[in-house]
Amino acid sequence: MHTDPASHDQRPSVEARPRRSVRNILLGATAALVVAGAIGQTFITSGPAVAAATSQAQTQINPPSFADVVDRVRGAVVSVKVKLVNDDEQEAGAPQGFPQVQPGDPLERFFRQFGEGQQRGNRGERPRSGGQAQGSGFIISEDGYVVTNNHVVDHAGEVSITLDNGKSVAAEIIGTDPKTDLALLKIKGGGTYQHVNFSGTTPRVGEWVIAVGNPFGLGGTVTAGIVSARGRDIGNGPYDDYLQIDAPVNRGNSGGPTFNGNGDVVGVNTAIYSPSGGSVGIGFAIPAEVANTVIASLKEHGSVSRGWIGVQIQPVTPEIAETLGSGMVKGALVSDVQPNAPAKAAGLKAGDVITAVNGDAVDGPRELAKRIASLGPEKQVKLTYLRDGSEKTADVKLGSLPSDPQQARATPPQQQERASLTRWGMRLTPSRDGQGVLVAEVDPDGVAAQKGLRNGDVILEAAGKPVSRPADVQAALSEARKDNRKAVLLRIKSGEGTHFVALATNPTS
Q: Could you give the angle at the alpha carbon of 25 between the alpha carbons of 24 and 31, nearest 5°?
């Protein structure tokens, strides 16, 4: 993986769009307020008094100043410098320290592009033992605990902290959590340090925020902006719940804090969308409520334990809801239940739609995953789910989320019975082990491809019944047409896991 000595973070995006500068917006707002003040005075008096009032308004109305807040917090913001160790198993050409993504994942291009940007200006190869990386962090306790990003310290051999006064001190890694991209460090050697606190409230969209960090290795730098959105999912994992901010965040800012107007940390800067690696006003920060919980677990245990029920889940689309006989496009559809998992022991099975946890409704898979994970192992929960149109409940004792869950793999084709579903743009053949029907060929312009079916996928069930021969799939489609059903629900196993697809019974030609 590639690392620039001056930076070790952020992820670029698809494209940048030009927008008005913050300075122009602030100046425009100030001018409007001054005019409004002058107009207001004309209802009271006129002549010299109006001029005096206007002059007074011009001296009193200014853009917001963050100087007092910065004075209070900047001593707790640090630069994190890392001496990397060589890892021969890392894929050549991939950015050092970034989360691993599957080939073809949309983020793979972003990470690789960012890694290439990091190489410019140096020898253009993956860092060997002794390579350097750099990011930001912030001190959260008087005795020197430091929060940063996991990808900043990933593959670290040695870690040092540069304080705001320029002093460098050694640090050790207490724990990391790749799933949320957080890491906890501890300054060695004791001492008393200025520190900051996580905010106890979630910022509202439109609130001012301040980002402090070490972009491009320049040292403590302050930028300001607003919260643009909350709950952003950027495809980094099942627990994505980012704040989007427009305060300029650049390479080297990763792991640094985003503050509210009171000087409390509302987010940990971790990613950007940009075609060049520089800020275009789209930055992402891990919310304080997430970071606080993860960091507390890292401090106590050195790792994070999450609750687990052992199911693969997917969204309920309108088509899938119709095939299930439900008009509710909410909840998480169970596409597979792992053997010996808590969900299996509680009686859940593929095709169930989980709608609530402990009586609290869940809108979709992402919310369910976060809810279960946050409860932790060994907790007893009540799941509400739909099966065959009826609402049921199950008591489930949560397990511990495995660190390396198994993924289903497609089985190779067998040269036996074949079936050509040309109307749907695919050809089927039995799987080698007799479990399901292999999708041997898919027309890239056909209906099957539009539904996401790919060569090598395995159809496990059609209309809720297991299939072992291509004729079983054809029969399910024929029967559904006779019953005037618009679609048949297929349960599919692919390289990414198991999921459902609603295949139309009468595809348009």
A: 90
pLDDT of residue 105: 44
What is the C-alpha separation between 3 and 118, in angstroms, rounded?
A: 6
My answer on whether 41 and 148 are in the same domain is yes
CA separation for the pair 488, 308 (Å, rounded):
30
Same domain, 299 and 352: no
Q: Looking at the predicted structure, is the pLDDT value of residue 138 above 90?
A: yes
Which residues face 438 on adjacent strands? 429, 458
Q: What is the pLDDT of residues 371-409, one digit of tens each?
A: 898 888 889 999 999 988 889 999 999 998 776 443 322
Same domain, 112 and 210: yes
Give the number of residues written for the chain.
509
- The pLDDT, as a whole number, for residue 403 is 62
CATH for 165: 2.40.10.120
Kindly tell me if the per-residue pLDDT of 501 is higher than 60.
yes
- Burial tier of 310 (Cβ tally within 10 Å: 0-12, 13-18, 19+): buried
Is the same domain home to 38 and 67?
yes
**Bridge partners (DSSP) listed for residue 136:** 79
Domain containing 257 equals: 1-304
User: Average pLDDT, whole number, for the chain?
Assistant: 76
- Residue 463 CA to residue 477 CA, distance in Å, equals 8
**How many distinct structural domains can be found in the chain?**
3
Comparing 48 with 13, which gets the higher pLDDT?
Answer: 48
- What whole-number distance in Å separates Cα of residue 300 and Cα of residue 302? 6
Pairing of strands 221-232, 208-213: antiparallel
**Quick one: 232 and 125 in the same domain?**
yes
The CATH number of residue 392's host domain is 2.30.42.10
| Residues 252 and 365 reside in one and the same domain | no
121 within domain boundaries: yes
Q: β-strand 311-315 against 332-337: which pairing, if any? A: antiparallel
Q: What is the mean pLDDT of residues 468-472?
A: 83
Q: pTM for this structure?
A: 0.61
Examine the fold and report which residue of 400, 430, 452 is the final residue of a domain before the chain moves on: 400
Q: What does the longest C-alpha to C-alpha distance in the chain come to?
A: 98
Give the chain's radius of gyration (CA, Å).
Answer: 28
**pLDDT, tens digit (0-9, with 9 covering 90-100), for 340-377:** 899 999 999 988 999 999 999 998 888 898 889 888 88
Contact 7, 118 (CB under 8 A): yes
Helices 22-41, 48-60: axis angle to 10 degrees equals 150
Strands (E), 192-235: 208-213, 221-232
Which residue numbers are catalytic? 151, 181, 254
Distance CA 8, CA 152 (A): 6
